[in-house]
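Hi R.,

Here's the chain you asked about this morning:
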Amino acid sequence: MSVKQKTLEVLENHRGKFVSGGELANTLQVSRNAVWKAIKSLEQEGYDIEAVKNRGYRLAESSDILSEQSIRKYLSDTRGKFQLEIRKSVTSTNELVKQQALSGAEEGLVVIAEEQTCGKEKSGRVFYSPKGTGIYMSVLLRPKISMKHAFAITTSAAVAVAQAIEQVSERKAEIMWVNDIYCDGKKVCGILTEASYQMETGKFDYVVMGIGIHVKLPESGMPVELGSKTDCVFQQTETDVRSQLVAQVLTRFWDFYQRLESLPFLEEYIQRSCFIGKNVTIETKEGIREGNVLSVNRQCHLVVAMDDGTEEEFSAGTVRLKNDCKLNTG
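And here is the predicted structure, written out as tokens:
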């Protein structure tokens, strides 16, 4: 770890409090000039650091730049499960992690970007990923589970994100089958899971779980085409909530991941599901069907009482509330 990274770690651990230059130098076993250079470099990267004579340096409470140091102080990662990589800008965190997976990267690699220029949703649309306001994160997994439990990765992640949002923001979070998170009827998060597996053995080579969360409202606001159906977790915030959210999501997801086949998250997934009890239309390859959603089963299929009196399960399809706009594609 460089002097700059070590300096940031100390400042993060004392966020909002002054740390003297002498204390930093002694802690890091470097000269005070080296500390001064590290501070200047951090300021050039955008960190709001106050310097006061005879008091030292203080990282502002309002600083919300993502860094390994800002995340790890909230992360319950005593066994070193995650290898965090923070990038300024990428085309797509999922694409980057897939490349690293093919190069032999270990499970637990997490790539987080301040900005994506070509992030994507399950539908194929571009996921709006402006600089400095969201969480754009992909996690590399090498699960030992069978293909029949593949759905559990996305659904457990959905519950982990919903829990994390409620913990940090105190806003109620619901799951829009099968992979989106909504607050007050608007989408705040999308999850895209991509995998490579061996047909002969039915085992996974790797899984890349991508999570995009709209955390804070960009200065220019949301694009017109998203404004009526997309929201941010916070309208205004002056704390490092993005780092807190990342840590909460990773910690909660990893707990589920260790027990995927027992589906410890399923009951909560069902409780948080927006569609249960609602009349919907379902657009599939075979055509459009209508019915009332009864439940989500143990395979996370949508169980629907159809208008013709039959009961069917759906593992995929575009679902709409009747007389409403399109909500989600499974």
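One quick note: The chain has three domains: 3-59, 68-272, 279-329.

Cheers,
M.
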